[in-house]
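ERR on first pass: missing label on line 2. Operator R.T. fixed the label and resubmitted. Corrected input:
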Amino acid sequence: MKKVGFIGLGVMGLGMAANLLRKGFEVAVYNRTAGKADSLLALGATELGSPSAVAGSVDVVITMISNDSAIREVYFGENGIFEGIRSGVTLIDSSTISPTLAKELAAEAEARSAAFLDAPVTGSKPAAVDGTLVFMVGGNADRLGEVEDILLAMGRKVIPMGPNGSGSIAKLAHNTIVGINVVALAEGMAIAASGGIDGHAFVELVQSGGAASRAAEMKGPKLLEGNYDVQFSLELMLKDLRLSSVLSDSLNVPTPLLEASKSLFQVGDAMGLGALDMSSVGQAYEQWIGRKLGHKG
Amino acid sequence: MKKVGFIGLGVMGLGMAANLLRKGFEVAVYNRTAGKADSLLALGATELGSPSAVAGSVDVVITMISNDSAIREVYFGENGIFEGIRSGVTLIDSSTISPTLAKELAAEAEARSAAFLDAPVTGSKPAAVDGTLVFMVGGNADRLGEVEDILLAMGRKVIPMGPNGSGSIAKLAHNTIVGINVVALAEGMAIAASGGIDGHAFVELVQSGGAASRAAEMKGPKLLEGNYDVQFSLELMLKDLRLSSVLSDSLNVPTPLLEASKSLFQVGDAMGLGALDMSSVGQAYEQWIGRKLGHKG
Amino acid sequence: MKKVGFIGLGVMGLGMAANLLRKGFEVAVYNRTAGKADSLLALGATELGSPSAVAGSVDVVITMISNDSAIREVYFGENGIFEGIRSGVTLIDSSTISPTLAKELAAEAEARSAAFLDAPVTGSKPAAVDGTLVFMVGGNADRLGEVEDILLAMGRKVIPMGPNGSGSIAKLAHNTIVGINVVALAEGMAIAASGGIDGHAFVELVQSGGAASRAAEMKGPKLLEGNYDVQFSLELMLKDLRLSSVLSDSLNVPTPLLEASKSLFQVGDAMGLGALDMSSVGQAYEQWIGRKLGHKG
Amino acid sequence: MKKVGFIGLGVMGLGMAANLLRKGFEVAVYNRTAGKADSLLALGATELGSPSAVAGSVDVVITMISNDSAIREVYFGENGIFEGIRSGVTLIDSSTISPTLAKELAAEAEARSAAFLDAPVTGSKPAAVDGTLVFMVGGNADRLGEVEDILLAMGRKVIPMGPNGSGSIAKLAHNTIVGINVVALAEGMAIAASGGIDGHAFVELVQSGGAASRAAEMKGPKLLEGNYDVQFSLELMLKDLRLSSVLSDSLNVPTPLLEASKSLFQVGDAMGLGALDMSSVGQAYEQWIGRKLGHKG
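pass 2 clean. output:
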C-alpha cells in the first residue's frame, strides 16, 4: 500500500488525514504549528519535522494549506517539499490556489522527475470528516489514476478537469457561483424582510421552488438565526473571489456578478466579519434595511 | 363542492384548470383568445363569454395572466371581473404582478364584499401539469383556509405569506434569487470554459458541490447543449426583475446583484433572445468569450 | 409683455421668479405653504390663492415642484391648473418628472387648447439666483420660440430636445451622469486615501487631469472637508436615478453603472444621509475603509 | 546642466524627450525597436545601445514604457538599467505600473545607492507634445526637488504624492475615475438616444451642466461621430482598471463602480475594440440599443 504524507492539519486536513488512516494507509504528517497531530498519532500516524522530511519518505504527498504564500513556503521554502523530494513521488495539493501557482508547482515537480496534481475539494468540515469531499483534479490522467484510491479514501467523487491548473480553475469558477448564490439569498431575504414577509416562510419558499440551492440549504438557517459560526469564513470566500477575479481578468471574461459579489464581501470584511461564516455578508443588508433577515412576519 | 372559475388558459393555466377538473371541481373557464379551452371542455369544463360572466356564476375565481396591464383589463375592464362579481366570491390571482396592483385589487374586492388573494406560484409548465406547484399567498388567513383545497388540487404546497401583497412580494424576492442564480451559473461556466475546462465536467462538479442549485439542475443541461426551448422565457424573467427593482426601490433596499443581473437579461433581450428560455442569457457570455459554455475540454 | 404665473416657491423657484420680476415680467405666484412669497411681493409679484387662479389669469404658467405626485396634484387636483386654465396658455414645468407624466400633461393641455413644455433645468440654487440655469425643453418648437424670452430671463441657455417628454428624458440621462460621476469621485478618493495619498493632493490631481469634472469641482471640496451642506440632496439624486432606472428599463437600455450607483445612493439613504448633499454618499466609503476621504497624507 | 537618459520612445516618450532637448538638456536615448529616435537625433540627442549604457552615462534616467513586464525587463533584464547604473543616479518612471513594482524598483535602486521616483503622468499625446503633462510623484521629496526642472520641461505641473508607490497609486485612482466617467457618458448618451434625443443636443447639454467632465469634452465628439482614433486605447484603460482592481483589493476598498466599468471595457475588448480609443466602449451600448449614440433626433 502506498505511503502517504499529509502536510497542513487545519480543520480540513485533520479530517482528511484521519480518513486515510482509517482506510489503512500509512501516513506521515507535518504541520507548521506543533500539537495539531495528536489525534492522528493516536490513529497510527507518524509525525515528521519538515515538509522536506515528509517528501523524502513517502510515495504521495498531500498538501492542504490556507493560501498561495503559505503553499509557496511549504513547497519552495527551506526544508520544503522540493528540497527533499524523491523522483517518482506524486504531489497533490488540495488547497484553493491560483492556477498560475498550480502550473508553477507542476513544472517544478516535473523538473525533479516527480508529478503534481492540483486537486482542490468542494465540501467543508463535515465533508472532510465524513469522507464525502469531491475532488476536482488538474494534471496527468495516468498519475491521477494511480492515486485515485487515496482521494476516494477521503472523498466520494473524483472529477478529472484537464491539464495542470484545471483543478484550480474549476474550483475558482465553482466558488464564484457559491459566493454569488449566498449573496443572492441574502439579497432576496432582504427584499422579503423589508416587505414584511416572515423570514422562515420565505426560506421555506426558496427551498420549495426554483430558487433552491445548496447555499440556501446551508446558509438559510444561519441567516434566519443570525448564527455565524464558521462553515467557510467570509475572508476565505473573499480570497477565492479575488483569485477568481484575477483569473477571469487574465482570461478576458467579463464577470459582472462576481465583481458585484466581491464588493459585498469586501463590505462585510470592512464591517469586521472576516472571521465569521461567509453568510454574515447578510449583515450588510441588515444594516441597510434596519431589520433582521430573520424578520418575524 | 365549490364552483371555480378559471381565467387565462396559457401554458400554465391549462394545466392548472385540468387538475381542478380531474380532482372533481366544477370549472367555468374564459380565455381572451378563443379555442384554447377545447382540451378542458373535453374534461367537463364550461366555457363562458367574459370575465364578468365567470365572476357572476362561481364561488372562486382564479386568474393566471401574463402581466399587470392584462390583469388590470380582466379585473377592471369592460365585462371584467368586477363588473359581474357577486358578494362573497373569493378572487385568486396566481400571476406574477406588482404588490401595488395586488393591494389595489384587494381593496376593490373588499369594496364589493368579496375577497382577494394574491397567490403566485413557483414551478413552471411541468409542475402546472403534474399539480406540483407551490403557492405563496398574501391575504386573509381565513379566506385562504376556505380555498386551500382548491390550491392543493393544483399544487403540492401552500405557504401563507402575510397580508395582501405579501404573495407578490415573496414571488418577486424569490424570482430575484432565481434570476441571479441562473446568471451565476452562466458566469461560472464562462470562466471554466475560458480556462479550457470541459463544460460537462464542470456542471457535474457544480451539482456535486456547494454551488449546486435548482437553477443549475434545470439550466445546466440547456446551457451545455445550447437548447433554449422555453421553460421560463428570458423576457418574463426580465419583467419580474424589473418589478422587483421597482419594489426594492420603494422599500429602500439596495440590491446590487439584482441590478447587475437585470442588466444582463436586458443585454440578452437586446440580443433578440427574449422569447427563448431565460438561460439563453448565457449567450451573452458566449459572445464575449468567443466559446460555447458547453466547451469540450 | 406676457403675464407669467409661477407655482412652487422652493429654493429654486424663489430665485427663478425673482429673476422674472427683475427683468420686468408681471408675475403672479402661488405656493402651497403660505409665507414663502414675501420676498417676491416686495419685488412686485401678486400672490394668488390657487394654481387654478394662477392659470386663469396669465399667459404662461411655470411650475417648479418636487416630485411626480405633487405635480399631479397641482395640475389635476382640486383648484388645480387644469381647472382654471384658459385656452392659449403655455404651461412650462421645470421640475424633474417622469417622461410619462410629461406626456400626460401635454396631452391634457392640448385637450384644453393650451400647450405644455417640459423644461427641466441643470444648475442648482446659485444658478437659479444668478439666472444662469440651462433649460432643456421638450415640446412644440413654435411654442418654445414664443416663451424663450421668459426662459432666458431665468437662465443662460435653452436647448430644444424634441417632442414632449424629451426634456424629461434628457434631464434624467444628464443626472444619471452626474450621479455616476459623483460616486466615481468618491470611489477614486477612497482608493487614494486607503493607499495613504493626501486627499487635497489627489483632488488637485483629479482637477488637473483627465478625471476632471464639474462633479469633482463641486463635490471635491465637500468630500475633503466633510461639509455636506446641501447643494443637491442625496434623496433627490436617488429619486432621479430611480426615475432614470424605470425610464431605461422602459427603453430597454442596459445601464449597469446607473444601477450600481443607485445602489450606493440607497446605501447612503439607509445610513440616514438623505437630507444631506448627495456627495455624502462618500461616507459609505469612509465607513468601509475606516478613514476620511480628506485623509492627510 | 544634468544629463538625462530617456528610455521608451513611443507616442508619449517621443514628445517628452523632444521637449527636454528643446529646453536645452543633453539627452541620451534608447528604444527597443530601432529607428524611433530619428526625430530626436535631429534635435541633438545621442542614441545608445542598451538601458545599461544609458544608465551608466547620465544623471537622471526617465522610462516611459507600456507595462509591468516590459518595465521589469528594462530595469532588471540583461543589459538593463540596474546592470549599468552608477551610484547617485535618479531613476524616474513615468509609465503606469503597479505600486508593488514601483516599491520593488525603489528598493533595488536604494540598494545600489541610486534613487527611484514613480512619476506617472496625466495627459495623452497632445500634452506630451505641448509639454503640458501633469506629473504625480511618489518618492523622496529632496530627490524630487533636484529633478523638478526636468519634469517641468515636459509638463506644466508636478504634484508630490508621498513615498514610493504613491505616484502609481494616485495614477490608478485617477484613471479609475477617468474610466468610469467615460462609461457614464456612454451610458447617459445611450439612454438619451434610446429616448429619441438628438445626440449633439445631449452632449451640448452635458457640457453645459453638472454632468460636464473632461471625459465628455474629449470623448463626446468621438462618440457622436463614431471616430475611434486613439487618444488612449481601450486595452490600456482596461490594463489600468485591472491594476486598480488588484490594488483596491489589496487595500480592501470595495469599488463597485470600478468593477462594473472594468466589465464593460472587457466586453469592449471582447468585441475586438482593444486597439481603438477607449471611448469605443460606447459601441457595446450601440449594439444593445440598436442605435448610434450620435442619433439624430
